């Protein structure tokens, strides 16, 4: 029995050490391979000449309208929380109790952890791993790096990943030249980029992008060095 306990302890120590070292490594190197990207590649093996369209783009080379758009649409309190927006999670749980369309409460930090470190499954084990890595990247990466990785690994179309590739494929320009309209269109399809296509946006996507631009105008300028935090609500 004591050998089993010792083995479990060794495995836990190894797992923790490996996860921390891996997270530290990805703090400095481009994240070019993700579990979702590998899965999509195998799913499309039957297609002739399949290619993955992905271009790592440093945050400095991405127009600030892009992070502003995803913050407006995905995570309004991005600069204020430490990885988990408990108010948004509570609202999502309350909303989902009604039996209507399921709403998520994940932050950009959680989505980044899920995209980079987890398989795209809907299990409590995956949620636990996601939560663990969310804490790690908030501590080890910081908001600037989390946003940079997020904008480079998100799925933006069929076999298209990151805003750099999306900018060139769908808007025929580099990410540095995208404007608020382009940014809002990219953010609008992120919930399901395989169904809501940037190449042929539906009326719903156009309406959603307009809503995102309205939300963007209500936000302060994005500044990763000196972020403007939302004002606390008076009780």
Quickly list its features.
235 residues, mainly alpha, three-stranded mixed beta sheet, 10 helices, globular
List the helices and strands and how they pair.
Blueprint: H1 2-26, H2 35-43, E1 53-54, H3 65-74, H4 86-96, H5 108-117, H6 124-140, H7 143-153, E2 155-157, E3 160-161, H8 163-170, H9 180-189, H10 203-217
Parallel strand pairs: 1-3
Antiparallel strand pairs: 2-3
Helix pairs in contact: 1-6, 3-9, 3-10, 5-6, 5-7, 9-10
Short recap of the structure:
The chain has 235 residues and is mainly alpha-helical. The protein contains ten helices and three strands, in the order ααβαααααββααα. 54% of the residues lie in helices and 3% in strands.
Q: What features would you describe in this structure?
A:
Helix 5 (108-117) packs across helix 6 (124-140) and helix 5 crosses helix 7. It contains ten helices and three strands; from the N terminus they run ααβαααααββααα. 54% of the residues lie in helices and 3% in strands. It has a three-stranded mixed β-sheet with strand order 1-3-2, with helices on one face. It starts with a helix and ends in an 18-residue tail after the last helix. A hairpin with a 2-residue loop joins strand 2 and strand 3 (160-161). The chain is mostly helical and 235 residues long.
Strand tally, please? 3
Low-confidence stretches: none
Number of helices: 10
| Strands in their spatial order, largest beta sheet | 1-3-2
Give the N-to-C terminal Cα separation: 55 Å
What fraction strand? under 5%
Q: Percent range for helical residues?
A: 40-55%
Query: Outline, from the CA principal axes?
Result: globular
Q: How would you state the average pLDDT, rounded? A: 88
Radius of gyration: 19 Å
State the order of secondary-structure elements, H for helix, E for strand.
HHEHHHHHEEHHH
Helix/strand/pairing class, anyone?
mainly alpha
Biggest sheet statistics: 3 strands, mixed
């Amino acid at each position: 029995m004591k050998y089993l306990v010792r083995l479990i302890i060794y495995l836990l120590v190894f797992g923790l050490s490996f996860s921390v070292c891996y997270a530290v490594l990805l703090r400095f190197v481009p994240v070019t391979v993700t579990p979702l990207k590998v899965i999509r590649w195998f799913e499309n093996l039957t297609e002739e000449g399949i290619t993955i369209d992905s271009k790592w783009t440093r945050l400095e080379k991405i127009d600030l309208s892009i992070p502003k758009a995803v913050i407006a649409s995905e995570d309004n309190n991005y600069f204020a929380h430490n990885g988990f927006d408990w108010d948004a999670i509570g609202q999502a749980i309350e909303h989902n109790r009604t039996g209507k369309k399921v709403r998520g409460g994940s932050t950009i930090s959680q989505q980044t952890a899920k995209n980079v470190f987890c398989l795209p499954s809907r299990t409590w084990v995956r949620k636990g791993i996601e939560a663990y890595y969310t804490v790690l990247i908030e501590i080890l990466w910081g908001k600037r790096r989390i946003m940079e990785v997020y904008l480079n690994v998100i799925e933006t179309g069929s076999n298209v990943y990151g805003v750099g590739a999306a900018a060139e494929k769908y808007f025929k320009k580099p990410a540095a030249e995208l404007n608020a309209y382009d940014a809002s269109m990219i953010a609008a399809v992120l919930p399901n980029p395989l169904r809501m296509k940037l190449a042929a946006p539906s009326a719903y996507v156009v309406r959603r992008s307009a809503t995102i631009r309205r939300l963007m105008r209500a936000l302060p300028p994005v500044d990763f060095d000196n972020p403007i935090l939302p004002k606390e609500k008076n009780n």
